[in-house]
Amino acid sequence: MMLFGKIKYSIQLISFLVSLVCNFVLIFLILNKSPKKMGSYKYLLVYFCCFSIFFSILDIIVEPYIHSHGSAMFMMMELRHLKFAPKFAYLLTTLLCGCFAISITTISIQFVFRYFAMERKGRISYFRGKWLIIWFLVPFITGTVWIIQDWIFLVPNDKMSEYISDTVFTNYGINVTDITYVGCLFYPPDENGIPQLDFKQLIGFLLFGFILSTTFWTVVIFGVKSYKLVRALPQHGESEYTYKLQSQLFKALVAQAFIPITFLFIPIGLLFTAPLIHLDFEPASFLVTIFYSMYPAVDPLPIMLIVADYREGLSELFDNLRGKRTNQIGSSYTDQQATSIS
């Protein structure tokens, strides 16, 4: 249990540091190396980077454990110094859950933008001026709805605390009184100890599922449409530079979509659904916890490495840093020689 805790915290800490470095570097590249044809898309990318930084900070504060057991699924936070303020700890945990909703909504909006930009029918104007502000607000609205649903459907209660107490102590060595959690128990036992479906939890599951499925199918539908448009660009007389840029942006976006699908959509979706349909995914809980923390660290990598302007800017940045280091070493060596001669 101690080894698991150390491994988990080490991965979360490394992910936090990598996320800060990568996202700040990407913001610098976006603001200084973006081609003019990027238009307002670069503001969407900066917005996404800022959110990833917030996600990372919140994740290292909460240090979440995501777990599935029997007919229960939950994200828990060890109270430690917040034992006197469990409501505040619960708020932090719900905010981290809200980050999941914001993330999947933001990536779906990027797919809509790329499609509008490539179809050339004037609808890209909906991502300019006041419309751009509205698009920025949509993920926050989705995240807020998700958090409100947490407070309605997934609050800690005595039945669930009793149900998960043994698995929390067995797997993590923590008493259930020393944690707060966001979670659901689909089949709580009745007065006779017989599991019965909790329809309130089922309604909550359906509402969460609606947000998940809406964002997922938005990515799929607009991803397919964008792919068809990218392939048709040369036939419409677009310049080679435009074709390459749009292809790079689309490839980066596909990679960016693959990351949340791999690190968020599938693991969280399976872990959330398994208790409802009596599947045991408890052994996978550790991997889901790690994947959730790694997501903001790996998410900026595709756009940095696939888009040529950013890749060249990153290489130039490394060359400048290496050049300064070499000059410092050379200057120090010259000073030492001068001192030796004196």
From TrEMBL:
Pfam families: 7TM_GPCR_Str. Keywords: Cell membrane, Cell projection, Chemotaxis, Cilium, Glycoprotein, Membrane, Olfaction, Receptor, Sensory transduction, Transmembrane, Transmembrane helix. Its main location: membrane. One of its GO terms (molecular function) is G protein-coupled olfactory receptor activity. It is found in: Cell projection, Cilium membrane. The chain crosses the membrane at residues 12-31, 43-68, 88-113, 133-154, 202-224, 253-278, 284-308. An odorant receptor which affects chemotaxis to the volatile odorant diacetyl. Specifies AWA neuronal cell fate via the odr-7 pathway. Interacts with odr-4. This is Serpentine receptor class r-10. It comes from Caenorhabditis nigoni.
